[in-house]
Amino acid sequence: MTELAGNIRGSTRQLVCSPVKRLINRIDPPVIVLLYHRVTTLPSDPELLAVSPANFREQMQYLKDTFPIVRFEEDWSGIANPAVCVTFDDGYADNALEALPILEEVGVPATFFVSTGRIGSRSEFWWHELERIILETESLPPSFTLADDRFGRSWPTGLPGERRAFYQGIVRLMNDVDAGQRTDWLAQLRRWAQTGEGVTDRHRAMTVDELHLLAASSRVTIGAHTVTHTRLSSLSQAVQREEISASKRELEGWLGREISTFSYPFGRRSDYTQESIALCRQAGFSKSAANFPGQAHRWTDPYQIPRNLVRNWPLEIFTGKLRGFWTR
Ligand SMILES: [Zn+2]
Fold it and tell me: Of 35, 53, 199, 226, which sits 20 to 30 A from 87 (CA to CA)?
């Protein structure tokens, strides 16, 4: 998952053609790393995470026909031409069920960074549970008061606009707290809305069998993405270490192979710290992916590789955005 406000700003940013970047790209051909989350069709998608299977197939076919496609874990220092790399974050079931068949059919390799805490649980990621409780429950009380020593406050929830503002406000707050606090807040919300724990199949993470199915493809690399998908910069060093190394350990236990790459939850520069980078190195990762736009060059920090978010764009928009990714 990415940060909501950042997504909106990023997707509407004016792309400015930079002659300097064009020159740099000629001197050192870059890799453009693309960031996806989901390939599926959803009735509503407030976080803009899903690309439809039809758009994804066209995007992959265009990449395959137009650029060399490299794998995330490879050494890119010797590439002769600008290249692209396809990555996914989080570990949704649709990665195995809807994205994988298209990648196989078109012949495109991809790396899937998987957050391990939800694998096999058949429950939703926390941002989808918020969506379901706040935006999709038919009738709710007129206001919600969050009981919390530091973040406690009230929101009106009677009108659709108030519900949307509440959803966006509490997503932002939840980005800044640890998994224990989130669990407590979600329990408060469930009690308030008189609803049970998330059971929507639509937003679930992969089962262990689906993870095996995905990892069995010769096109696929699996990377780690923490256990609980918490903003690393909000955690102590000890908890960061556990989040980073336990996700590697769990994936290696399931798959019986070394996991050598990682991506930071949310991934903006403010979402991780120099400690996070050092901990990734110590855990044995050779590369880590961030989530801010840019190109990966020979001199790019391998533990802060920029990635460019892809939305549910039809081909003509995708090709235009892609042109912008080489210079932004
Ligand atoms: Zn994520």
Answer: 199
